[in-house]
């Protein structure tokens, strides 16, 4: 009946929250016995678990140590959590992206906890001269029932730490978990609400200078010349100079993405002094010439064309219309779509567009660097320091073991902080100044630097026979400078004749991952199209999807279908039930539904729009998610609620436009962000109860929000919304403050 | 440069800075009170919210010379042990995601509850709409503020 035959359970409210913040470290002996790379225990039985992965608000500081604690068998309330050092050998891949944190650490952290528990049992068995099988554990204590002996983990930690780490230890049955699956508060909650220096931008050491970069005011421009004489006269200013980020011919790694290579740097004592002095710079910029770059990404080397054009949004949109008519790269073909469209009784064709999006992390990009001849220290916010370290090593001509990177809590990331240009910039500035420096981007620097979510478009076509059966499906998508299409996702596999194509227009506007890359557009377009298709076919929009998913399960078309049709249908049925999809209570709302699969998880939303002061307003949302085992239920609810708010905000207001290469929005007075009064009153989140290994959660709930909003707006206004942000076509919600 | 006397969190402080320097940067870089955050610099995001004579202000847009000897409270001065009822409500509702904006949110919430101990939802929404949360924790912020109200 429901996905995986499992029970469905809904988490709501706070549940039972525990905290590990109530330990006074002042009275703890500083004798930590390290057991596996992740666990440290003192003789006093104080247990510390290291979080390996960068924290940007997805709450891995809490959820990952919970996984260790589960297998280690300790009292979570007594665990101290600490951010681990950057050490890919000891602590794994250490990157935050692709909703991978829990997914990729699930097994290694369970194994680390289980291995440590085994080492402690071995140590106790040796000391007590009893068979290890008879040694049991409970909440940080070891027992031998027959002899009545017992002791703390701490008493045996030193002995256990001396033994090699065993492999292949049996893991607990998921059903017996008591830490994983119970809600725990954010372990850094108290530090956050008291304003402790947790973030990279809070870094400070004696003698540290502040650096800021003046980058070109437009994409397609570069530095020609500058006069810093007035700037240098300003109080607190130490130096003004240019740096070249990469030398000519430098082969970039996939996350070295940088927009501007010749950078004008102002260094001074304090941020305000540097900000003020920048205003006195006299700079001449010139247009670039077309160039080619080689980028060595995960999928091998690619050559990228960087055109010289100064781009303007209206011209970009016109160019997308022109390119959409040209032949494109075929990404998937099933059956004979051309013939099916030719003989169709009816064809539905719709085109969707979406703008560039700026990530707008609340903490602007920044990094601390102290580079000397011997070594380099970096402190700051980055989603994947290990991806940038090889670049730092090359640029500084310094072996990686002389480079130390300390990971701070990030004030948001959303994909932008996977790119490391600002770490390299900080390195070069520190080397030049022979001093510790903190590079700080102003909000304007941050918003106008690039690495945006690309500008996208897609045209969807559906062919119906005389009985309104769906006989063919075609998507042709493009973008600046990449296409969005995931060719092997639903409804691929559910339609006999299927064609997916993609095309791209080169640009000098740089792009990067943005919460659920490509999916965040595909879901918006495809799930809006399916809504209109269902209407054309005279079907309920959930029923149409379920029929297609039934087909994809029972008699799939093609072999390479990425999604599990049962789990996809499961979240749709679940959200239908939770929202009371067609019940009388729901009639007072204009309802829209959408679902999507990405990052190995499934999400469905029902969005309810009402008229408030005569304008449409998203008042409530029901969300159903299948991400396998949920580690920290209340925090998972928080993440989904945040994704829903983020989705509504970007769907209605998000967008960065350009005029002659220059971004037309450079701060929050022009780039509209969703605010308190525009957020829904209620977001009801339900998780499919599952024993399946956990998959992504940060990204999957985000993409389908856009379409659910569009589909609900259609019900509210009678108009379909094809072009994001929808707010530019209709006065939505209350006017901004 | 000018010598300016400040009253911050009940303590007298003297700084020697450009009088036009925004209070935000004096707090962060001269007094090491980094709980007050830089977000936009133009009073649009609320991350830098502090109390000036009990009222919420955006410290990024307040020149330090204009607040000499006036009573300023930052997140660090809100409570002795992080146990102000609003801070406790934030923990009880496990509000934070990335956490960067939350000190500003808390300072706005405290100022709201001081002037209006039992705000309606609409009053909460209006008073808090100057504080952006990029992670989208608005519902929990509202729940936390409501819970402080009902505890009274």
Describe the structure.
The complex is a heterodimer of chains A (737) and B (152). With 737 residues, chain A is of the alpha+beta class. In chain A, 28% of the residues lie in helices and 26% in strands. Chain A has 17 helices and 31 strands. Chain A has a seven-stranded mixed sheet, with helices on both faces. In chain A, a hairpin with a 2-residue loop joins strand 29 and strand 30. In chain A, helix 13 runs parallel beside helix 17. Chain A starts with 7 loop residues before the first strand and ends in a 20-residue tail after the last helix. Chain B is of the alpha+beta class. Chain B has two domains: 76 residues, Roll (Ubiquitin-like (UB roll)), CATH 3.10.20.30; 67 residues, [2Fe-2S]-binding domain (DNA polymerase, domain 1), CATH 1.10.150. Chain B contains five helices and five strands. A five-stranded mixed sheet of chain B has the order 2-1-5-3-4, sandwiched between helices. The longest helix of chain B has 14 residues. The mean pLDDT of chain B is 96. Chains A and B meet through helix 5, helix 7 and helix 16 of A and helix 1, helix 2, helix 3, helix 4 and helix 5 of B.
What's the topology here?
The complex is a heterodimer of chains A (737) and B (152).
Chain A: E1 8-9, E2 33-35, E3 39-41, E4 47-51, H1 60-72, E5 79-83, H2 88-91, H3 101-128, E6 135-138, E7 141-144, E8 149-152, H4 153-162, H5 189-193, E9 209-214, E10 221-227, H6 229-232, E11 237-244, E12 252-253, E13 262-268, H7 271-278, E14 282-287, E15 291-297, E16 300-306, H8 313-324, E17 329-334, H9 337-342, E18 346-354, E19 366-371, E20 376-380, H10 385-396, E21 403-407, H11 421-433, E22 437-440, H12 443-447, E23 455-464, E24 470-480, E25 497-504, H13 519-537, H14 541-554, H15 565-579, E26 590-598, E27 601-612, E28 615-626, H16 633-652, E29 658-659, E30 662-663, E31 682-688, H17 703-717
Parallel strand pairs in A: 4-5, 9-22, 12-15, 20-21, 24-25, 28-31
Antiparallel strand pairs in A: 1-31, 2-3, 3-4, 6-7, 7-8, 9-13, 10-14, 11-13, 15-16, 17-25, 18-23, 19-20, 19-22, 23-24, 26-27, 27-28, 29-30
Helix pairs in contact in A: 1-3, 3-4, 10-11, 13-14, 13-17, 14-15, 16-17
Chain B: E1 2-8, E2 11-17, H1 23-30, E3 49-52, E4 55-58, E5 71-73, H2 85-92, H3 102-115, H4 121-128, H5 138-151
Parallel strand pairs in B: 1-5
Antiparallel strand pairs in B: 1-2, 3-4, 3-5
């Amino acid at each position: 009946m429901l996905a995986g035959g499992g029970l469905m359970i809904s988490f709501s409210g706070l549940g039972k929250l525990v905290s590990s913040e109530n330990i006074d470290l002042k009275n703890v002996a500083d004798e930590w016995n390290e057991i596996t790379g992740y666990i440290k225990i003192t003789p006093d039985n104080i247990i510390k678990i290291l979080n390996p992965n960068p924290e940007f608000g997805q709450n891995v500081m809490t959820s990952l140590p919970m996984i260790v604690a589960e297998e280690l068998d300790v009292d979570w309330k007594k665990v101290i959590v600490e951010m681990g050092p950057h050490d890919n050998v000891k602590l794994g891949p250490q990157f935050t992206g692709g909703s991978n944190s829990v997914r990729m650490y699930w097994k290694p952290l369970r194994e680390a906890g289980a291995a440590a528990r085994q080492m402690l049992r071995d140590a106790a068995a040796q000391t007590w001269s009893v068979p290890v099988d008879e040694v049991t554990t409970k909440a940080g204590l070891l027992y031998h029932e027959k002899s009545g002996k017992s002791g703390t983990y701490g008493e045996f930690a030193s002995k256990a730490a001396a033994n090699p780490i065993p492999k292949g230890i049996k893991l607990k049955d998921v059903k017996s978990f008591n830490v994983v699956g119970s809600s725990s508060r954010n372990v850094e909650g108290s530090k956050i609400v008291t304003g402790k220096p947790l973030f990279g931008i809070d870094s400070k050491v004696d003698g540290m200078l502040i650096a800021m970069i003046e980058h070109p005011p437009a994409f397609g421009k570069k530095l020609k010349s500058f006069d810093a004489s007035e700037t240098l006269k300003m109080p607190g200013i130490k130096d003004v100079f240019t740096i070249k980020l990469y030398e000519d011919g430098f082969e970039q790694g996939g996350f070295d993405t940088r927009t501007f290579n010749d950078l004008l740097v102002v260094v001074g004592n304090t941020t305000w002094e540097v900000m003020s002095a920048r205003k006195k710079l006299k700079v001449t910029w010139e247009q670039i010439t077309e160039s080619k770059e080689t980028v060595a990404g995960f999928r091998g080397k690619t050559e990228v064309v960087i055109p010289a054009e100064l781009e303007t949004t209206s011209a970009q949109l016109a160019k997308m219309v022109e390119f959409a008519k040209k032949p494109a790269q075929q990404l998937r073909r099933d059956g004979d779509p051309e013939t099916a469209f030719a003989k169709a009784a009816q064809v539905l064709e719709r085109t969707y567009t979406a703008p560039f999006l700026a990530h707008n992390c609340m903490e602007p990009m920044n990094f601390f660097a102290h580079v000397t001849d011997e070594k380099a220290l970096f402190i700051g916010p980055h989603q994947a320091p290990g991806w940038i370290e090889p670049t730092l090593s090359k640029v500084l001509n310094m072996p990686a073991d002389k480079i130390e990177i300390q990971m701070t809590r990030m004030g948001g990331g959303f994909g932008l902080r996977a790119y490391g240009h600002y770490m390299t910039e900080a390195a070069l500035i520190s080397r030049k100044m022979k001093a510790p420096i903190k590079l700080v981007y102003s909000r304007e620097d941050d918003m106008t630097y690039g690495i945006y979510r690309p500008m996208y478009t897609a045209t969807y076509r559906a062919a119906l026979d005389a009985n309104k059966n769906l006989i063919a499906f075609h998507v042709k998508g493009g973008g600046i400078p990449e296409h969005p299409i995931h060719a092997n996702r639903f409804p691929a596999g559910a339609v006999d004749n299927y064609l997916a194509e993609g095309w791209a227009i080169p640009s000098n506007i740089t792009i990067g991952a943005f919460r659920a890359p490509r999916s965040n557009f595909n879901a918006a377009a495809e799930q809006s199209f399916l809504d209109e298709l269902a209407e054309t076919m005279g079907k309920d929009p959930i029923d149409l999807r379920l029929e297609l998913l039934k087909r994809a399960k029972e008699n799939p078309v093609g072999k390479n279908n990425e999604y599990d049709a049962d789990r996809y249908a499961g979240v749709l049925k679940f959200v239908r039930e939770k929202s009371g999809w067609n019940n009388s209570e729901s009639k007072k709302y204009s309802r829209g539904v959408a679902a999507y699969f990405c990052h190995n998880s499934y999400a469905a939303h029902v969005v309810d729009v009402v008229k408030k002061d005569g304008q449409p307003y998203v008042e409530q949302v029901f969300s159903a998610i299948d991400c396998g085992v949920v580690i920290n239920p209340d925090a998972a609810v928080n993440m989904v609620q945040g994704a829903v708010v983020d989705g509504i905000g970007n769907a209605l207001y998000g967008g960065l436009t350009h005029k002659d290469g220059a971004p037309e929005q450079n701060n929050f007075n022009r780039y509209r962000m969703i605010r308190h009064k525009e957020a829904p009153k209620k977001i009801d989140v339900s998780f499919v109860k599952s024993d399946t290994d956990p998959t992504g959660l940060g990204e999957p709930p985000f993409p389908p929000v856009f379409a659910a909003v569009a589909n609900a707006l259609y019900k509210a206004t009678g108009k379909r919304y094809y072009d994001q942000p929808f707010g530019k076509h209709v006065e939505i919600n209350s006017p901004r403050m | 440069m000018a010598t300016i006397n400040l009253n911050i969190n009940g303590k007298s402080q003297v700084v020697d800075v450009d009088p036009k320097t925004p209070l935000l940067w004096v707090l962060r870089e001269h007094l090491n009170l980094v709980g007050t955050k830089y977000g936009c610099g133009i009073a649009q995001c609320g991350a830098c919210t502090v109390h000036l004579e009990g009222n919420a202000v955006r410290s990024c847009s307040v020149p330090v010379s204009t607040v000499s000897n006036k009573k300023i409270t930052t997140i660090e001065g809100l409570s002795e042990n992080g146990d102000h009822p609003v801070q406790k409500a934030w923990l009880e509702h496990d509000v934070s995601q990335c956490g960067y904006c939350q000190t500003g949110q808390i300072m706005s919430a405290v100022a709201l509850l001081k002037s209006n101990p039992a705000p309606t939802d609409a009053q909460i929404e209006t008073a808090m709409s100057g504080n952006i949360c990029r992670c989208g924790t608005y519902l929990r912020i509202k729940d936390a503020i409501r819970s402080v109200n009902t505890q009274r």
